[in-house]
Each structure stands twice: as structure tokens, then as C-alpha cells.
Amino acid sequence: MTELIHNAKKALDRLKIKFDDVAIKMILKDTVMVKIWNNQISVTQSWRTIESRIYLAKDKRILELSLSLERPEDIVKVCDEISKYVSVMKESEIYAPLPEPTAYEPLKDLTDAKIRNYMDNPLPLVEGLIGSALDNGAQRVAGTLELSVERKALATSKGFEGEEEGSEVMCYLRAFKEGVSGHWAFGSRRVNEESIRYVGRKAAEIATLSKSKVSVEPGKYDVVLSPLVVGNLLNDVAMMASGLYIMMGFSMFMKFKIGDVIASDIVSLYDVPRNIELARSTSFDDEGIETYDKPIIERGKFTNVLHNVKTSSKLGGKTTGNAGWITPLPWNIELKPGDYSEEELIREVRKGLLITNNWYTRLQNYIEGQFSTVSKDAVFYIENGEIKGYTERIRIADTFVNLLRNVKAVGKTQYLIRWWEVRIPSKVPYLLATNVNITKPYA
Fold it and tell me: In what order do the strands lie in the sheet with 269-271?
């Protein structure tokens, strides 16, 4: 038994006397971050964080706390102070007791020893990242390499005890060439030296793909979306499959039933908590339920709502191993691959755009899935299957349902993507969607 689970159990034993339900999740994380600016390392930082997350329920009243505390006596002291206010709280409309513990199959090989080694000396990875971009035509680069190892321990008043350790590498780089920028990202539980170099090479390739600037008018276009854009947009789609978001009206799925067609039949989107390539892979959720991989959309059909015991008790069905004590969420996402290379997707386009990166994705109408997102870095105009030049920044302004139903081709190569615009680790390919509404983000 490690000190982490020992402390969680010790605090649990003292708190469960006063509360109907208690769960304590303790997280210890070591991180090394290297920041790159103008082709050089600008900052190297390392730190350790300790976080205690506590779930308490009394007479159907719920409290959830997050504390930067480790000692059980400190945790109990804070909880004792807060417990004085439980009686004045309202009963939760979604309360359900924590589930009884069940057996789970632990995931293996979640920690890569090479990440620990590179945390001591990240320089070889950083040099490969910068060098690969400069060797492929970039004039200057900026980005971040982050390496971490995290251990979590969970104990519940129902008797569940579990502990896991996992590593993560997250890397992203922006390359610049004569006023054009390209960007790429990578995230995984395992450090892959070639994948790190690929980030630099791909960012440079995007920045140097075309020297000609063309103008694009607002209208309907076929669009090839890079894995960075696919990951960003499907993060939102997967989040809206949460049972709580459906209950609250913050989801396009609330207007559909299981089995409804909401996408092209070549679209299959999965929640994959047991894919050990991806950084949030885990064998148990925050309620102590075993995780499993499951489709959210299978061959175009809405297939699963993501549940914890609260939402499953209100909406029907059973928990899917996606807790969140309050909000069930996807762990990792995967868009199943298709049959096309990146070049073949471009050749399919008569008049359209290759959008390589995006940000500021916002929902204007959650129920309709109406969203907008602004391109970042290079956007290329395609005519008759050929890239004619790069264009100014554009905005996609459409609905997720229209976008998903208009997917005509999916790439055959999947990429492991994670950075600050793709918060949920994603394994996704390029895709081609037709008849997408494009506007400009400025007058």
C-alpha cells in the first residue's frame, strides 16, 4: 500500500462516520515543462502537485471539494468545517448513492520508463523537435514540451480501493516561414522520439506548403479538416454525450434518441478509456466502476449516453464507467479510420479549403449544436484537387449535425493529438466534409 492510498483511506475512515457517502481521490503529479521561443529553450520548469478531491453526501445533499492538501488530518479538518453548512443546503435533484464496488481489470503499462528518464534530461527531445522543423524549411519556431507522471488513489465508503500510475508526453510546435505559420501537436502515455520529431517536421511542412496568397469569399465549401481541428470539434461532440449535459439542455443529443442517424455512416466516434496510448486511459472511474470502450456514434447512429450512477438513475440505463461524481465525461476519444490518405482527400475537393488548426470554438445554440470556430495558422484554398495558395483567417459557422452528416471521406491514418485546444486526448484522422458554411471572423 502506497502512502497515497493510505492517506485516502485514513481520511475516508474518519469522514464516513458523519456522511452517507464519501469518496476521496488523491492525485500526485510530477511535471517537467520546456518552453521554446525563437528556436531556443526559453524556460524549463519542474514541479510537483498534490491534490485531494473529496465527495461528500448527507441526506441527499452533495458537496464536492478540491484541496491542495495531503495529510488526512488536514482534509478532515476542512471537511468538518464545511459540514456545518450541509443542513442549509438543498437536496440534490440528481442524488444517487455511490455504487457497490465490483472487480475491475487493471490496465497494464500505463507508465513509460523513458518519460521518467527524459524528465531528468529533456534536451534530446527538444533538440529533435526544433531541429526537425528547421531542417524542413521553418525560419523560427515556438512551442512546448511537457512530460509528467501522475499517480491517483481512490477510496469510497462503499469499500472500493484502487490505485493507478500513468505517464504522459504532450508536445506542440508552431513553425513560421515568411508570414505563414503551421502548427502540430502530439500527446500520448509513451514518448516516441520519431513522433516528437514529426511534430516539428509537420508544422514546418504546413508553414511552407504554399507561397501564394489567395482571397476566399464567404459561402459553402468542401473542407478537409486536420486531426487538430477534428480533435477540437469532436471533443465538444463527445462532451455533449454526457448524461448531465443532456439533462441540463447543454447538448445537441437531447433532441435525439438512441439509434437516430446523426452523422454519415462512415463516422464512428468512440470513448476509449482503455486505450493505453492515450493519456487519460484508466481502468476505473471516480465511482469505482470498471471502464470500458464504447461507441458514442456508431456508423452514423447515436449509440450511447455517457453515464455515472446519478444520470443513469434519472435517464434510465446503467452507468457506463464515465464518472465524474457530478458530471459524467469522456475519457479519451477515437474517430475510427477510413480509406483515404491526406493527398487523396485533397484530390477529392473541387472547390474547398484545407483547415490545419482552429481555436475559439463556441456554441451559439447547444440543442441545435450550432457552433462557430476560427481558423488558426495556415488555411489553404483547394481547386480541382490542387492547393492553389494560402488564405486569410476564416470561420466555420454551422451545426455539428450538418458537419457530421456531410462527412464524405475519412483518412486512414490516425494521429494522437493533445494540446490546450484538444483537452480530451484524441486518436483521430483527417476528414473531408462537404457543403460547410464558411464566413470571415472580421468585416
Answer: 301-302, 294-298, 269-271, 333-335, 422-428, 415-419
